[in-house]
Each structure stands twice: as C-alpha cells, then as structure tokens.
Amino acid sequence: MELLPAHRAAMREFDNRVRRTGIDQLDNATPCGEWRVRDLLNHLVSEQLWAPWLLEGHTLEQVGDRFDGDLVGEDPQAAWDRASSAARAAWDNAKLSSRVHVTGGKIPVEDYGWQMTMDLAVHAWDLAKGIGADTGLDPELVEAVRAVFEPHLAALADSGLFAPAKPVSVSAAPQSRLLAMLGRQP
Of the candidates 18, 19, 84, 164, which lies 20 to 30 Å from 10 by C-alpha distance? Predict the structure, then answer.
C-alpha cells in the first residue's frame, strides 16, 4: 500500500471511532498513559490542523502556539471534521518529494506522512479501546504501517513517543504485532 492510500485508510479508521464517541465518554481512560479520550482527540485534531501549515513549508515557529489548548470543546465530531478535512486537502495536494519542518528538523514529506499514518492508525485503536468500540483495523493498513516501521523499531523505542515494545509471539496476528511494537498490550 502506498502512502496516500494508507493515510486515507488510517484517517477513515480514526474517523469511524470519532463518529462513535459520545460527549459523555470524553473522560474515559485510554491505553495512552495519562490521556483521557478528550486528550487523545485533542492530540489528533491538533496534528491534523498542523499538517496543512507544515506541508505548505511553514516552520514550527511560524505556526507557533495557535493550536494549543482544548480544540475539542463540546463537539468532538465537529472539531475532528474541520481538522481532518483541512488535512485531507493538504495531503491531496502535497509534494511528496519535498521536505517538511518537524520537531527534529526537516524530514522528507513522505516520512512525515507515514508518521501521521501510523499515529492515526494506532490512535484509532486507542480511541476504540477508550470508548468500547470495535478495535479491528484495516488489515492492509496494519501490514503497510508495520512493514514501514518494523525495521526502525529501535529508533521508535529511542524516540520516547511510544511506550516500550511489548513481547508478542511471531505467530500473533499482524494487528497484535503492530500494537505490541508500539507499546500496546493487544
């Protein structure tokens, strides 16, 4: 699976869980350490709002703190719809051969796209766990994300962005292997 179809699939997975999220579930726990459902949603809404700016070539300093604070409010679906629509449009027009500013410096847009894809996919699972929804992810998406990131498992562990990898059997289902690789207990 190529980047843009994988990214769209990951957005659909997260979108499907947002549509099932009730306002009364915003304080539910998630598998993401200290994050509640609201925190998880806020993280993904913020990421999507950043994407158009970064894909247009803006630096982190130029974007500044405009996406700090509570972006979810009392209507998580509306917040997600606005943010994800802007991100989808930006990715549809992105030059994958260019570079983008991120916390660690400038990286290829394609690498940024895969990072966003992985984040959407794993957080779709996290959100599903937090709201008690179906946790099954698109198998083709799971395989694509795992294939891209498994060779970089040590770098993922060193990044501090995910919990340490969990042990999992080599015969485990692909989704379980991906989740364990990213510090989740499937």
Answer: 164
| DSSP state for residue 36 in the 8-state scheme | B
Q: Percentage of the chain with pLDDT > 90? A: 80
The residues with which 101 forms a beta bridge, in sequence order, are 106
Query: Which residue, chain included where needed, has tokens 């260019």?
Result: 98
d(CA 60, CA 63): 5
Confidence category of residue 156, pLDDT binned at 50, 70, 90: low
CA dist 76 and 42 (Å) reads 9
pLDDT in tens, 93-142: 999 999 999 988 899 999 999 999 999 999 999 999 999 999 999 999 99
Residue with tokens 């997600």: 80
Q: Using an 8 Å Cβ cutoff, are 38 and 139 in contact? A: no
| Side chain identity at residue 91, one-letter code | W
Query: What DSSP letter does each residue of 110-167 carry, written as one string?
Result: HHHHHHHHHHHHHHHHHHHHHHT------HHHHHHHHHHHGGGHHHHHHHSSSPPPPP
Instruction: Kindly report the pTM of this predicted structure.
Output: 0.93
d(CA 185, CA 76): 26
Which residues have C-beta within 8 Å of that of residue 96, sequence separation ≥ 6? 3, 4, 108, 109, 110, 113
Give the 3-state secondary structure of residue 108.
strand
Helix/strand/coil for 105: strand
